[in-house]
């Protein structure tokens, strides 16, 4: 059912064979994106057809990369909660929460890794690895286990123990490293070169973004149109990049017009490279020194997809802002007590950001605002 045609460098446009495992562009070291025959896909993949199919990746099969049924643990069947009790806090805008904590392993990382590992298995990969601040390691371990692949997870030594214990329970080799996620990435790269692991780091292979893009498809499948604003906690940026790609594809498929949701990147005050670059008018984000935040998913000092993230924010008339860890905790409490959503600090960050944007008049009364709760509070219970 897939209409996958090839992979394409997001910067220089060079084409790559999708029938082999690929990583970054070999010329400019930028992410590769999957391309489809959207004219052919659109013949069967109408919005009405997607709405008639059961939820999950299979609803969008024509624009997913799989040639066979992928390893499905139930990812992507998450609710878009209408959180009307939160409207007042947004100055009369409509608050919606896409609760990604209800994915397998408790975060939206399940979407990305389901796609990356499903596809890696099709292409003959047998060992997968990544550096992680927590949720990606759990998801990698789960999908590798289900697919019968070996998994290696390298994480900072202070990673919350539910992630470490969970990944071990799921059968992965877990290495604790004395450094941040970029240093863990170097450990993965060394072991990959030496021992033949396939590196599934964020945007360093093309299919995690394909899994994450389904969040954008879900919004339109659920609402029938794009919302006005999407507030998203940004670390490596796969979600922003994936959703922006989804909106472009949906326009080509005839599901939506040229209007886009205004995309908001929320980062932590202690690690905000995208916010700094956005405010400075830069096309690329310089690495952030001494990154610190309890929101481990946002502790990404350097994003390989920085250009794509910044371009998506600007093209959608979006914005970027940073919130403190204390604001995230208050935000998680607001989502909890106000909407019944058990939110990770990253989800709480979205509430704090949206509240500030509404107070500033950037979010207006009556607008539909989707906040992403990307992970479960339970994995961070000690940090709370
Ligand atoms: C990884 C992660 C993020 C950041 O996601 P990106 O799409 O890589 O920007 C946000 N929240 C949680 C809970 C995460 O695990």
* SSE run: EEEHHEEHEHEHEHEHEHEHHEHHE
What are the segments in which pLDDT stays under 50 over at least 5 consecutive residues?
A: none
* Class by SSE composition: alpha/beta
Helix run count = 12
Largest sheet: 6 strands, mixed
Kindly state the percentage of residues in helix: 25-40%
Rounded mean pLDDT is 96
- Strands of the widest sheet, in order across it, are 4-5-13-10-11-12
Q: Over all CA atoms, what is the radius of gyration?
A: 19 Å
Could you give the distance between the termini? 44 Å
Shape: globular
Structure, described:
Helices cover 37% and strands 17% of the residues. It contains 12 helices and 13 strands. With 384 residues, the protein is of the alpha/beta class. α4 links the parallel β6 and β7. α4 runs parallel beside α5. It starts with a strand and ends in an 11-residue tail after the last strand. Bound molecules: pyridoxal-5'-phosphate (PLP). Pyridoxal-5'-phosphate binds next to α8.
At a glance:
The protein is of the alpha/beta class. The protein has helices at residues 38-44, 47-52, 109-122, 135-147, 161-169, 181-195, 208-223, 238-253, 273-279, 306-315, 325-339, 345-359; strands spanning 4-9, 15-16, 32-36, 80-82, 94-99, 127-131, 150-156, 173-177, 198-199, 229-233, 262-268, 319-323, 368-373. Helices cover 37% and strands 17% of the residues.
Provide key terms for this protein.
6-stranded mixed beta sheet; about 35% helix; about 375 residues; binds pyridoxal-5'-phosphate; globular; alpha/beta; 4-stranded parallel beta sheet
Give the secondary structure arrangement, pairings included.
Blueprint: E1 4-9, E2 15-16, E3 32-36, H1 38-44, H2 47-52, E4 80-82, E5 94-99, H3 109-122, E6 127-131, H4 135-147, E7 150-156, H5 161-169, E8 173-177, H6 181-195, E9 198-199, H7 208-223, E10 229-233, H8 238-253, E11 262-268, H9 273-279, H10 306-315, E12 319-323, H11 325-339, H12 345-359, E13 368-373
Parallel strand pairs: 5-13, 6-7, 6-9, 7-8, 10-11, 10-13, 11-12
Antiparallel strand pairs: 1-2, 1-3, 4-5
Pyridoxal-5'-phosphate is lined by residues 107, 109, 135, 202, 233-239, 297, 344, 346, 374-375.
